[in-house]
Structures are given as C-alpha cells and as structure tokens.
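> forwarded from #structure-qc
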C-alpha cells in the first residue's frame, strides 16, 4: 500500500467517492428524459478498488433535505423509471420516488425516464451505495439543496386568513344539530375578503337546517363569488370547430380538442367519382379510383421535386433508380447524373447505408493479405490492430495431401517431401535467390532449388538443362494437422479465397472477408471529390467534397426525367400539388386530400364542403353547427358543475378542481390550546374562562389563498348568526401568515437586497475606472467584480452599525408559552437579525384586576395623582419614585430576560406569562445593499475596499508571468505592486472602520425615547 492510499474500511471512503458523482436531468422533449451521472474517479484508484458499488436515483416535486430524504442503510429499493407519481410502482423515500436502483453496478451511467411533463419542476437526487447496502446519505443533487439550519428547522408554512365564530353552548353541537333557522326565511350574510365586500341576502333557511347542511350550502354560495359559468357540462363541450388552415374538424370534449374523421370534398362523398385521385395526408400515398375501388400508385410511378423535372436546370441531379428482378434497388447499376450543358453526365456513386467516409467496420473474421510484405493478417477487434497469421497456401484441398507432395515450412525454413505418410526433409536442395540471369549458379541434375522471397520450388531435369516448377504447400505448421481452426488459402486458378477449418463438421468454411491490397483495409477510403452517396434506408442523396457530405435535392426516378412514360406522376414539393405526364408535359391533377377514404362513408363520418359541416347519421347527412375560432375558455375562467357541486378553474390547458376565494369549515369540540386563544369580544359575550373547559365548536371562515396579504372578516351581526337558536362568540379576524425564506438574510429579497442591480452595475464601472479602464485593460469578469463588492459589503455588515437599522415590533405573548418563532413576513419579523430588549407595555407596580397590568388605565392615573397630590413636587421626590419604580420592575419581572437565535428565528423568553399580553421588541434589522452602496457615509469606503479586492485578484492573474514579450522588448507586470497597494489600502480602511468613525449613533448607543 502506498503512503497516500486509503484503507479499504476507511469510514469516509464512500462519502469521498459519493461526492465525486454529478447528476443531471436532460429533457428529451417527447415526454421522456435522461438522467445522467458518472462513476467516481478517485486519483490513483482503479474501479475495482472503489467502495462505490451502485447508485439509486430519486425524484421529487420538492427539494430534498438531509433528515428525511436519505435512503436507509441496509434497505434495497425497487425502482420504476416514471416521473408520474400516480402510476409509479417502485419504492419511495419520504415523498421522493425511486426511479433508478443499480446495485453491484459500476458501469451504468444513464437512465431513460418517462412521463416527464413540460413546465414542471423535478428535483433529482442520487445516492451512492456500497456492497454492504450502506448509502452516502447526503447524496448529490441536480440542483442547489438548502443546507442551512433554518431550512431544516422551518415548520411554519404560509397560512390563510380566517375569522372564527363560536357556537357558545355548554353541551356542544354535532354536525346534525339543528340550527333553528326557519325554512321559509331568507337570511343575510356580509363578508369582506381582501377589501372586497360580498353581501348574500338570499341565503335559504331550508338549505341550512343542520350545521352540516349550513357548511355545505355556504361553501356552494362561496364558490359563486367568482361568478363562474354554471351547468352540467363543461363550456362548449360537444361543440365543433374547424381549423381552416389544416383543415381539421375538432370536437371539444370539455378539456381538449378531439380530431374527427372528416371528408373534405366539394361533392357528396357518398357518390364515388371514377378516375379521381386521393392522397392520404399522414402517409402521402396517392390512390386512383376505378370501378373496383381505390388502387395505390406505385412509388416508381411518382417523382417528387421542387420544379418541373422535365425542364432541368444546370446542376440538377437525377438519381437513376434501377430495380432488379425482385423489384429492389440495384446497387450496382443505379447511379447519380448531373445536368451539364444540356445533357446528363454520370457521376461516381456509392450506394450503401454506412457513410463511405467512415472507416470500414471489421470483425475478427476479416483477413488481409498485404501485398508489399506477403504477410496474411487477421483483425484484432479488441486492440483494433492486425495480427499476422500463417495459413496453408496451396491450390488443392489439404485433405488430399498424399505421398509425393512437397511442403515448405515457414517456421523451420526447410522443404519436405511426403514419404510413407510422414514428412522427410529434402536434402539435395539449395535455398538461394535468383542470380543476375534469373537462374541458379552451377545447377546439378535432379537437385532442388527453393527461392525464399518468391516461395517457389524447382527441380533440375535429368539432362541438367532446365528447371521444372513443383507445386509446394507453404505453411508454418504441419498441413496434415488441421486442429485449432487452421487457415487454408486456396490459390487455385479462379478461386483465390481463404478458408478456415471447421473441426466439428470436418469442412472448410470461407472467412467473412479476405482483402488483398497494399493499403490497410481499416483505413478510411479516399474518395474523389464530387462522388455521390445514396443511402437506401433514408433515401437521401449526398454529395461528398473532401471530408464533408451535403444533402442534395434530386430527382429520384427510374426513368429519364426528360421522357417519362405517359401517366407518370410528379408531386411539386414547393406547393404540394400533383401533375400527370400526358406525353409532352405535366398537367395539373385535382387530388382529394383526406386522412380517410373520401368515398368510404359510414355513420359517424363528417363531410365538409367548404361551407357546411355534415355528420353521417343513419345513412343520411345532418348539418352541424361549427366555429372557426378556438372553443377553449380563457385562462382563469371558472366553471361550477351543478351536478357534482364542484368548482373548476381553467389553467390554460385543463380544468383544475379548485375552491372559491373563501370557504367555510366547521370544527366540532376541538381541544383548546393556548395558541388557539385569540382576543375575545368580552363586551357582548361571556369571558373565555366560562367556556374553555368545554372545548370550542367553531364556524371558521377562511381564504383559500395563503400569505400575509390575505384578510377575511364576517359581520357577526348578520341575520344568519343572530337568528341561530344558540348564542355565538365573535373572535378577532386573523390575517394570513408567510414565513421567511432560507439562506443568509443579506441575500434575501426585501431584507438584505431589494433585487435591483443598478447600484452594483454603477459600482462595477467605478471599480474599473479606479483601476485605469478604459485606458488600461482590466482583466476582471463580472463575477469577480461581484465578489469584490460582496467582500466590501461583508466587511461593513461585520464591523459597522450602518449596516443595520433599529426598529420596534409588537408581539402578542400567551400564557405559559415561552418560545416564539419570528418568521411572519406580514409583521416584518423575518427582517430581525437581533433583539436588543423586550419592553412590557404595562408597568409592574400599577396593577389592575384579573392579574392584568394597567399603568395606562384609570387606576394608574389615580395612583400617580396620590403620589403627587397637594401640589408638592420636587426633584428628590421624582428621584425616589423613579428608584422605587425601578425596584418594582425587577421584583415584578418587568425586565424580560430572553435569548434570540437568528438561524432558527426562535425567541426564548425566560419568564412565564400568565395572561395574554402585548410586548414591544427593540430589534435590529438588515439594511439593503442598495442603501449601503449609495449611503453618503459608506459609499466611498465600500468603493475603496472593492477596488483593493480587485487589485488583489488582478495580482493573482498577472502574477502567473513576471514579464511578457512585446514588440519593443519585454513588459514587466505589476503583480507585486498591486499586492502591496491592496494590503496598504485595506489596512487603512480597517482602521477607519474599527475606530468607530463609521457607526450609526441610532444603533450604536442606547439613547432613545420610549413612549408606551
């Protein structure tokens, strides 16, 4: 093990590898998508040494977190690659669906997923897993996952506004309790929603006999507040529309257009017309009508071209589609022709599916005889190289080797003769090349001569006057031994083929390919410029120039375009019109364009004759009304289904079940908690202490929308409430709430920034100008300039009170509740970064009845009057009273001890409150960066600091090289000078801000007037 290698059981090994994975979602545009990731690539680590042993892929409609969204160790999940949660059959992790699960898999790096909707957010996460089933629980994500503590602890979501009316009865009520309303009486209810008043004066008592009926009926009436369309069918459902441009007939089914089978014809299609022509729109096929019905016109009798093919222009290309006896394209005799100077000129043509410029696809059955070296090679497909082989070279089947045959071994480089079924070396032989006379010096009668370079064997005749050539087997191994798929090169006249021995079937099988050439068959071919390539699968003709192919608009026909046969069809692709050749020219055809048989009339078929829409019903035509404009409703149109009592809203693509702007909900005998106790109007009704032990039966009116801009209130004096047979308690309406967002406050819109880029862009220009631009090139990107500004703002927020503003908030506290989460945007709590003090609104020593404090009421004034009676007042008395009040504040807990955690937004009061009370928070909030950049006291400091940061970045850029060559000699870069300047400037700026010269006295000292 090397000194930097990790142990196989290192506890962070899977995390180290898992965080190297990247994952992303690619939408394919056809309702599918591809999730792609990579196998971890750890330096110096082979794939077999990885702890990574697979991965699971999750998708959700909301971001993941590190608490509930991680897979559980030891659990193996089943996957289903669909994004549709309604049909997903795989496992889930929290709210995320498992779309991919690859265990013991270190090769798969992508996954095709289905049901990927447009304009829909998906959050994809990936978790590496090892061989023991342990997961990298943090995972990697195709998005920025919130990681701060505030996001993990946030439990408050946006809430609607509501107004509660309580049924005040000790025995409580049930859904079936009678309301006491009269059946024949109409009742009144006034509701205000977000400042808009709605008055119902005709609420039917007959529909509200029980509280359950009241809830249902009021919700129906609230749904009518949006003035919806009413009916049993969706608007325009069943009506027809014609798109005159296509043309197509549609029927609106309530949510979408459904195409109808339609015949577009000027004459009655129930009466067929002979010799008419019909083209099917989806396929482009052309048919002609005769007494036997429709006959398809063959593709060979049709030519498609942009202009009249019988009048070609210079450069026009014609592909001659020659067909063989089977009706297939003849790839040998078909060719491309170009019209040049009034005649067709034949061009080099290649007809094949594979691009001819690509190297040939070779297999392990491809062999090559290199003519320059005389060596036979076989293709090694794994290494993509040629490997030399040594076949048997002979003009006779090696199975027929007999005594008297000769063999030359390329291994031993000796010649042998077959004697008594064994090979014996030829002894009276010379192995020499030819002399200058193409002969052998000093030949001897009956002796042998072998020429190694030519691999030829000769024997001298008995008279020693001539050489007789002997047929010799050339082979490395014994040609009689044919085990191991030995090769045989048959060099007999007219054969010249390579075979491989099939030992199982005892036969010679021809190899896939045997090329004999000087050049490597694996090299891409060199084609002549102007060669044409026709792909028979795509029917595309391309012209090859160099290494580029370009599509050619061409005439594709088996006939000379100048002289086609009579009846030949030409389709003009410019305007999709049809013509027929009459022997001298092309004549325009009247062609019926229809997706269905124009004369195949049956019930349910439509016929449109340019002005009237007809539907075939019971063998006859019935006229139908239609529209030429869309039948879809406008976006945000409401429709109320009077059959099922459901309100729908059109979102632009479909009807979505929704609710009105408000709704009613009954809550029976709900257990009371201190959080549920709003202010009670005790002037008219019994105090809370009288009914808290019974629970509450509420009629809750609330908005369907959420957020702090939502408000709702009902008039509790409306006859609907005053005529109930049980008393009610009216509660104060509660507005909606909206929690704060996650992330640093200085980056939150509306808190640390107002979102406008103007101030930053202005400061960009000032920084560049401070560095010498435009006279000097400043090599800083916008991202680097933003980093300089960010650092300057962070210094201000860290050291200067100018970054903050002191303000005050009121907070309602409740009995026995110490913790309060300050997140409500409606109040502004989300802006608070620190709380300086909490002030009680009632003084501790002037108490009132029922345990409340009443320093501002009549009892407090009476006490003060007693203190300063008889007109005797002096400073000593004032001092003594003030000291007395201060002591009482300590004794009666007027000074509230607390702590506030900015990350979690939790205010923890150390005292316990015994009554509902309102306190004042002395708080500090963020000032926006736009304010800081333009502040008269900070603007110059921020600009100077940002410039110093820019100088530091420039020094790193220019410090890569000390000098640069130039036309007048080397140029010395100022890297070190910039570093020195930046350090000195930042030191001076730190002194300015640390000596408290940049402090806002409103935030820095505790001097203020507090009136309350």
């Amino acid at each position: 093990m090397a000194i930097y290698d990790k142990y196989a059981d290192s506890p962070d090994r899977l995390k180290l590898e898992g965080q190297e994975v990247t994952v992303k979602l690619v939408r394919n545009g056809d309702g599918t998508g591809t999730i792609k990731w990579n196998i971890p690539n750890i330096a110096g680590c082979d794939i077999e040494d990885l702890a990574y042993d697979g991965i699971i892929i999750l998708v959700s409609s909301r971001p993941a977190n590190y608490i509930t969204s991680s897979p559980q160790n030891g659990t193996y999940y089943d996957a289903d690659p669909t994004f549709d949660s309604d049909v997903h059959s795989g496992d889930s992790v929290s709210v995320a669906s498992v779309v991919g699960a690859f265990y013991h898999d270190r090769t798969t790096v992508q996954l095709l997923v289905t049901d990927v909707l447009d304009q829909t957010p998906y959050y994809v996460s990936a978790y590496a897993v090892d061989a023991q089933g342990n997961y990298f629980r943090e995972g990697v994500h195709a998005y920025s996952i919130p990681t701060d503590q505030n996001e993990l602890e946030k439990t408050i979501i946006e809430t609607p506004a509501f107004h509660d009316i309580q049924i005040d009865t000790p025995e409580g009520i049930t859904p079936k309790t009678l309301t006491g309303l009269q059946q024949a009486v109409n009742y009144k209810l006034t509701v205000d929603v977000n400042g808009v008043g709605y008055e119902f004066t005709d609420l039917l008592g007959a529909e509200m006999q029980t509280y359950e009926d009241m809830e249902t009926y009021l919700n129906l009436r609230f749904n009518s507040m949006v003035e919806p369309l009413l009916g049993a069918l969706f608007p325009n459902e069943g009506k027809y529309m014609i798109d005159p441009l296509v043309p197509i007939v549609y029927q609106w089914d309530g949510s979408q257009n459904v195409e109808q089978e339609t015949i577009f014809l000027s004459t009655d299609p129930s009466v067929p017309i002979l010799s008419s022509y019909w083209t099917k729109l989806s396929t482009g096929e052309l048919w002609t009508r005769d007494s036997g019905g429709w006959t398809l016109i063959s593709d060979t009798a049709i030519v498609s071209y942009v202009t009249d093919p019988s009048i070609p222009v210079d450069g026009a290309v014609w592909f001659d589609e020659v067909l063989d006896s089977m009706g297939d394209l003849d790839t040998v005799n078909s060719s491309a022709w170009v019209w040049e100077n009034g005649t067709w000129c034949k061009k080099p043509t290649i007809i094949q599916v594979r691009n001819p410029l690509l190297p040939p696809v070779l297999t392990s059955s491809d062999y090559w005889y290199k003519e320059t070296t005389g060596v036979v090679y076989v293709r090694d497909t794994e290494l993509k190289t040629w490997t030399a082989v040594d076949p048997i070279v002979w003009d006779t089947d090696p199975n027929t080797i007999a005594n008297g045959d000769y063999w030359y071994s390329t291994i031993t480089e000796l010649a042998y003769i077959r004697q008594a079924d064994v090979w014996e070396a030829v002894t009276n032989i010379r192995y020499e090349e030819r002399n200058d006379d193409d002969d052998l010096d000093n030949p001897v009668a009956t002796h042998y001569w072998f020429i190694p370079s030519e691999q030829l064997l000769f024997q001298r005749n008995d008279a020693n006057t001539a050489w007789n050539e002997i047929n010799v087997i050339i082979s490395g191994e014994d040609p009689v031994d044919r085990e191991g798929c030995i090769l045989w090169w048959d060099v007999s006249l007219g054969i010249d083929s390579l075979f491989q021995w099939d030992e199982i079937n005892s036969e010679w099988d021809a190899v896939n390919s045997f090329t004999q050439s000087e050049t490597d068959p694996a090299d891409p071919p060199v084609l002549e410029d102007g060669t044409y390539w026709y792909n028979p699968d795509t029917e595309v003709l391309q012209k090859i120039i160099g290494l580029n192919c370009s599509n050619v608009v061409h005439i594709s026909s088996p006939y000379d375009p100048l002289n086609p046969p009579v009846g030949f069809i030409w389709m003009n692709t410019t305007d999709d019109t049809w013509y027929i050749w009459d022997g001298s020219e092309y004549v325009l055809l009247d062609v019926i364009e229809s997706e269905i048989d124009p004369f195949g009339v049956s019930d349910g078929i439509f016929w449109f004759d340019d002005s009237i829409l007809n539907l075939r019903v019971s063998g006859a035509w019935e006229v139908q009304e239609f529209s030429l404009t869309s039948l879809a409703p406008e976006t945000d149109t409401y429709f109320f289904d009077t059959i099922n009592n459901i309100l729908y809203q059109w979102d632009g693509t479909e009807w979505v079940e929704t609710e009105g702007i408000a709704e009613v909900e009954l809550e029976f005998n709900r257990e009371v908690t201190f959080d549920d106790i709003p202010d009670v109007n005790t002037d008219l009704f019994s105090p809370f202490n009288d009914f808290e032990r019974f629970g509450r039966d509420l009629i809750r009116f609330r908005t369907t929308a959420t957020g702090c801009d939502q408000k709702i209130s009902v008039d509790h004096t409306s006859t609907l409430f005053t005529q109930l047979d049980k008393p009610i308690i009216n509660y104060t309406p509660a507005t909606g709430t909206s929690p704060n967002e996650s992330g640093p406050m200085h980056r939150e819109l509306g808190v640390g920034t107002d979102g406008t880029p103007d101030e930053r862009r202005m400061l960009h220009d000032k920084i560049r100008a401070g560095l010498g631009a435009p006279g000097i090139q400043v090599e800083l990107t916008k991202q680097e300039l933003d980093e300089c500004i960010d650092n300057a703002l962070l210094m201000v927020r860290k050291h200067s009170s100018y970054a903050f503003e002191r303000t005050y908030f009121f907070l309602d506290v409740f009995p026995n509740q110490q913790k309060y989460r300050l997140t409500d945007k409606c109040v502004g709590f989300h802006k608070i970064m620190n709380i300086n003090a909490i002030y009680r609104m009632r003084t501790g020593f002037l108490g009132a009845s029922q345990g409340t404090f009443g320093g501002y009421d009549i009892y407090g004034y009476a006490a003060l009057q007693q203190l300063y009676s008889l007109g005797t007042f002096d400073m000593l008395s004032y001092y003594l009273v003030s000291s007395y009040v201060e002591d009482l504040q300590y004794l009666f807990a007027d000074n509230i001890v607390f702590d506030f955690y900015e990350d979690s937004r939790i205010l923890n009061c150390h005292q316990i409150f015994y009554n509902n009370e309102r306190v004042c928070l002395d708080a500090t909030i963020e000032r926006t960066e736009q304010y800081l950049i333009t502040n008269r006291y900070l603007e110059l400091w921020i600009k100077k600091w940002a410039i110093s940061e820019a100088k530091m970045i420039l020094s790193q850029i220019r410090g890569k090289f000390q000098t640069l060559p130039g036309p007048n000699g080397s140029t010395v870069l100022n890297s070190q000078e910039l570093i020195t300047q930046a350090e000195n400037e930042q030191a001076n700026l730190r002194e300015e801000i640390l000596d408290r010269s940049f402090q806002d006295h409103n935030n820095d000292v505790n001097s203020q007037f507090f009136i309350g």
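QC bot note: DSSP finds twelve helices and 66 strands in the chain. Confidence is low (pLDDT under 50) at residues 147-155, 671-694, 847-859, 1004-1012.
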